Amino acid sequence: MIKTRFAPSPTGFLHIGAARTALFSWVFARKNNGEFLLRIEDTDRVRSKDEYVEEIISSLKWLGLGWSEVIYQSKRFEIYRDYAHKLIESGKAYEKDGAVFFKYVFSQVEIDDLIRGRIVFKELPKSEDVIIKSDGSPTYNFCCVIDDALGGITHIIRGEDHIPNTPKQLLLYKAMGFKIPKFAHLPMILSSGGGKMSKRFGATSIKEYKDMGYLSAAIANYLLLLGWSPGANREIISLDEAIELFDIKDVNKTSAAFSMDKLNWINSEYIKKMDIDELTEYARVYLKDKNFLPQESPLDYLKKVVELFKGRINKLGDLCEWAYFCFYDDYSYASDTGNILDKNLSREISILKDRIYNIESFDKETIESEFRSVAKELGLKARDLVHPVRVALTGRRIGPGLFETIEVLGREKVVERLKRLAGYWKKEA
Fold first, then answer.
1. Averaged over 294-320, what is the pLDDT?
2. What residues does 117 pair with on adjacent strands?
3. Which of 2, 231, 320, 396 lies at a 20 to 30 A Cα distance from 73?
């Protein structure tokens, strides 16, 4: 049976590149009816933190990944010491000053990488290496080989930055009599500028993207496209569909560039296609977590707001900025609206205010009809009123459809804000 693993180190939040590795490893296992194991590599007693462990597990679950078991290396030190002693007894390692050193017996080694093909390693940088430190903790290459072997890992899918570790690990497999698994080294994810993804580029962890309001399905979708394609120019694909189509041999050998524009497009597509009730619940949880929603805000009103912006936002976090006027009155008119407010239309806006107040059926069709009727009676084009009214109601030059916005805000709020605009002109005069 095929068995893969993901082995994060809990010294920080789950990196976007590491999440892509976990996703590919998980999809490969599911494609082949195999198992996927999670191993927490927490041997660094100083840098490993419980909060990072919790976040890594939470982020993986948020992405939709599951596993058959979780292994913590910090609980397996006795196993590593036992294998170190066996190597000492066989003459393949020795102890000095409390540390254990492995002696590499090097001959040319190679692997048939499932992505890159044949990789030949002709030399090692040194002839021996520490496998157990003087404080009793194991080194990376040693404990990961033992864990992969004992865990029955058949395929190791990891980033190409691990290629230099491979020859040392192959020799450790042979020295301990373990069966060597198959390897697949994924290309790196680069920033949009072509360099390594870092804080200078922007968000690098799954947690950060979750906090910005991206949907888990969209993030998983985009990560799949960073190095692999489902074919037929498809760019929107679910995890279940990916499992059916995925082939590790189709993964690109070249690095993939991370594009925020592409991610935003994919996320917006998921938002547009989502059922309004489901999207409203996602928005409610997100906005509540951000302390954005007023306590008295009813769910049916939030649903109307979400529907108003559904086709316009890239992520849920956009609602905190673009939908602020839907929940709060303490906004100012944006600085770029000055030319719209240059002409004093206080009389015309007051007339419009009264007509809107007296509308019997407060729906967008009736509102639009009454609005255009008022404009015509005043000798104005509709746009002459549309722009200042939009500023009055939202504080912005642009936004969702004006008549839909008026309907969502409701009669009383619209009247009060039009009154405020008329007062603004009087004050300016």
1. 96
2. 113
3. 2
